[in-house]
Amino acid sequence: xxVSINWLRQYVEINESPDELADMLSMLGLEAExxxxxxxxxxxxxxxxKAEKHPNADRLKxxxxxxxxxxxxxxxxxxxxxxxxxxxxxxxxxVLGDDFIIxxxxxxxxxxxxxxxxxxxxxxxDNQEGIMVxxxxxxxxxxxxxxxxxxxxxxxxxxxxxxxxxxxxxxxRDIAAKTGRKxxxxxxxxxxxxxxxxxxxxxxxxxxxDSCPRYVAGVxxxxxxxxxxxxxxxxxxxxxxxxxxxxxxxSNYVLLEMGHPTHIxxxxxxxSKTISIRKAxxxxxxxxxxxxxRTLTDQLLITDGKxxxxxxxxxxxYDSAVxxxxxxVLIESAYFDPITIRLGAKSLNMTTDASxxxxxGADPDGAxxxxxxxxxxxxxxxxxEWVPGIIDAYPxxxxxxxxxxxxxxxxxxxxxxxxxxxxxxxLSSLEIVVDESGVGTWTCKQPPFRPDLxxxxxxxxxxxxxxxxxxxxASFHYKGLYDPGDIDPEDGITNITAVLSGLGFNQCYLNSxxxxxxxxxxxxxAIPMKNPLSSAMSHLRTSLFPxxxxxxxxxxxxxxxxxxxxxxxxxxxxxxxxxEQLQLVGIIHGEMQSENVHGxxxxxxxxxxxxxxxxxxxxxxxxxxxFKTNKHNHYEYxxxxxxxxxxxxxxxxxxxxxxTVLDIDxxxxxxxxxxxxxxxxxxxxxxxxxxxxxxxxVERDLNFVMNEYIEAEDVILSIKNxxxxxxxxxxxxxxxxxxxxxxxxxxxxxxIMFQSPSKTLEEAEINSVINDITxxxxxxxxxxxRDQ
Amino acid sequence: xxxxxxxxxxxxxxRADIDSFPTDPREIESLRTKYFGRKGxxxxxxxxxAELSISEKPAAGQQINSLKNELQGEFDRxxxxxxxxxxxxxxxxxxxLPGLPFKxxxxxxxxxxLDEIKSIFKSVGxxxxxxxxxxxxxxxxxxxxxxxxxxxxxxxxxxxxxxxMVLRTHxxxxxxxxxxxxxxxxxxxxxxxxxxxxxxxxxxxxxFHQIEGLYVDKHVSMADLKGIIDYFVKRxxxxxxxxxxxxSYFPFTEPSAEVDIWDEKRxxxxxxxxxxxxxxxxxxxIGYDSSVWHGYAFGMGIERMTMLKFGIDDIxxxxxxxxxxxxxx
Lengths: 788, 329
Prior knowledge:
The complex is a heterodimer of chains A (788) and B (329). Chain A is of the alpha+beta class and 788 residues long. Chain A folds into 6 domains: 2-35 and 154-179, Phenylalanyl-tRNA Synthetase, Chain B, domain 1 (2-Layer Sandwich); 41-150, CATH 2.40.50.140; 198-393, Phenylalanyl-trna Synthetase, Chain B, domain 3 (Phenylalanyl-tRNA Synthetase, Chain B, domain 3), CATH 3.50.40.10; 405-471, Phenylalanyl-tRNA Synthetase, Chain B, domain 1 (2-Layer Sandwich), CATH 3.30.56; 492-684, Bira Bifunctional Protein, Domain 2 (BirA Bifunctional Protein, domain 2), CATH 3.30.930.10; 698-785, Alpha-Beta Plaits (2-Layer Sandwich). A 7-stranded mixed beta sheet of chain A has the order 27-30-31-37-36-35-34, with helices on both faces. In chain A, helix 7 (246-258) packs antiparallel against helix 10, helix 8 (338-347) packs across helix 9 and helix 12 packs across helix 13. Chain A is elongated, with a radius of gyration of 41 Å. The model of chain A has no long low-confidence stretch (mean pLDDT 93). Chain B has 329 residues and is of the alpha+beta class. Chain B has 2 domains: 3-90; 109-326, Bira Bifunctional Protein, Domain 2 (BirA Bifunctional Protein, domain 2, 2-Layer Sandwich), CATH 3.30.930.10. Chain B contains 12 helices and 9 strands. Chain B has helices at 3-19, 25-36, 41-48, 57-81, 109-122, 137-140, 173-181, 222-237, 280-286, 302-310, 317-320, 323-326, and strands at residues 127-128, 134-136, 165-167, 186-195, 207-217, 243-250, 253-263, 268-278, 294-301. In chain B, the strands form 2 sheets. In chain B, strands 1-4-5-9-8-7-6 form a 7-stranded mixed beta sheet, with helices on both faces. A two-stranded antiparallel sheet of chain B has the order 2-3. The relative contact order of chain B is 0.10. Chains A and B meet through helix 8, helix 11, helix 13, helix 14 and strand 27 of A and helix 5, strand 1, strand 4, helix 8 and strand 6 of B.
């Protein structure tokens, strides 16, 4: 919301600079900013000497603009350009925006030496409707930087709890309360009347009092439509609004002044002389002020008894709007239920200045005040004659709350000493009526314009706001709360990322929203969004792989081929209920080591992958890792990752078909997935120390010829089983394939270790075990010991 | 020059050369030639013997011999230093060559920030809890004092799964789960991923990460809240960081505040987090007696903290995972 500092000065003295005022308001909870000062290049005040129709174009005008010394011919497309206006004139060579340079042009056969600018072209507002018209007193030729010095306004970003500050008076009230300066009330007269004549001209019928608790109306006759006086135009402009005509301006002005929305109808266009307020019927249609046909559902309507004439609290109707020919007008100043207005505006996808105020909670008493203010202005500025009387239909009285404030609660919550006097004075300055009902207890009356003040804490916030949050001391007193138990269930992730980073992996963070096709590619029961941002983000991911593969693709395209990537994140699916599962997924691509002076390139393979997995578990000090050959439909081949004999993941070569579907420019991508929760659980098991054996290890190599299909891991298990009590380990040391071994045969050399915890092993003992092992392997695998 | 002086001169020259003994094999070879070659300095000395008288010859000869032994011994020792011990002179090392290529990885900047923030709060007695991203309307809104049709719902554009299920818009849903399952007092931080149905740009993404704090006890005040935030800000951004608290509005806290830190480079206050005293309606909703229990809550965006700390100006970089970005952290 734009707030004019000059306008604020009508109600409260302001000595602060715009920056200081913005700071003060921000510290009051009205987040304010001084807009960045514009710099204009090559723009001067111009005088439009002549504005005539362009000879070759109906919508263009051919103007003569003077900069005080020279005259220029300018083609202008704005409908509102007119002779005698002072305008911002961009001469040839001027720069608009960042880089739009004005050059000499020929438009429909006529020269144009410059441009008359709109506010939006100057970057002053979004207003594109026509050119900006300057103050009459501006001197042609003046540099626009010198003319436009008074960017005398602030932008305030209001929180939704403060509808009372959606007006200049409301903002001024907070400033006065904070500074202790006098608050000047808005001056207007509540007129007296002997007979309520307007009742003969108008019947108000509220069919839905819950939605429309109060409807104030009256009539002003014989108005003259015309331009607003200069002071009003200037006021509206300073708050970023355009002047339309005196009638429309009055309603807008009162809104910016007091914060209460009003609507002015053309009385003669409501021949029924009846206002009925009801909910729309489904499918009912209606043309609003902005000339759009609206199809209604159940919005609250103002009707003439039959047909809608306005969408209550949102926008008036086209047919009942004030026009050039209007004579008699009907003033509406109502209080509508916030939720009703919010739902109505939302269902039509409309947000208006009025709806914003009503949906946050308008002031029910403000309805009356605004009525009188509008009447007065219609008389003063449009020469209208007020029809004595007022209709105040108030079927559902809005009652202000009575709130008890206690010293005890203030002291606990505020954390700063606040005296009784401060409490009473501050609340009074916010127009909260305070009664001291006992020692340290106050009974406070909620002001009608503060729907946000309902409870004791709300008042305490007001006190904190006014004393200033910067005056609340910071307490560094540590309040003990000793609570053992699990301090951080995901603590292990820090270590996990460190180990993977040490293994050369880059951690990625990826979007958990993806498209439908991708979500179904590597998982089931993907969860769709009801209101997706786009079809590319319509579902929650069921796998971390696609995101990582797309990241791989992105980096390959930037010239980085040799990558190790991982992500820790949730996947999501729905079976019986919504499920989120924390996973660790990684991929590797390219080379583990590139070609270098010391050796050949080492491309990534299933075995480099396995070494990373082993290195990862070793880095986390998790010794019970094993693998088991297994199938998985996302992989061409691979193995299960097992820990303590339970399956916790899988690794292998990713199916090329997945890469093809995802359009990834890569081959031979290896990947792994691990259930993170289980890893973290394993990490939490404490280490048990085993004593160091002082006796020597004995090692033997055994070389077996066996069928190609036999897996080394199975042979090792057999060696272990036959290896007796002193068996320590067996490790495949060498694999040899040659046709001399026979068709489909290989030989594997196993390096086998023995060690006794209690003595030095003797040759004879070892030989006996070796014989057992040999016999077992030859039997179990139809293998043969190869001659050494 | 007498023969003795010549001997002395060769010795001095040799000493000087030995002081800067070369590593390059060719230079070593030319040094060897200079002294021990057929036309070398020692050979030169021997040739001058012929010009001496018979009586002088034996003594001078002896002196030259002992010089030769001395020089040869020294030269061999120096040569052996510059060679590998075992493999002989064919395997000389070029120490300027790089080592075997070694690829280091990286921990994502968001992870680093999260780890740091968690550790700061753990150091002052906070535990860490986690909760669901797929949440019902009650835990994400209603229980947090954001009823249906409340304008505060506009503060957060929401992804809906069904009318009643959403992707959480903040981590505050976990406050409710915590309090539903535990008796006060309690003190937790809650990190996690949250979603906003907003167009993606350099300053907003459809999802981001938050970390939220909650402390509930009998006597908790705004001063306690300022204390913990002050402690956090100074540990995270540095001890000299200027900070300000200003009033704001959140449905689940009252009074509410936003916290800014002063950005010297931009010359303005930068918002870093929202906080406040737990709204009594929230306590009422989960069944804590709001006349007895008080508390504070705060929440901040991990992306925002990371961007401020490292000077990153585009939030999308976090999710693009370009290795040229990742490897800087």
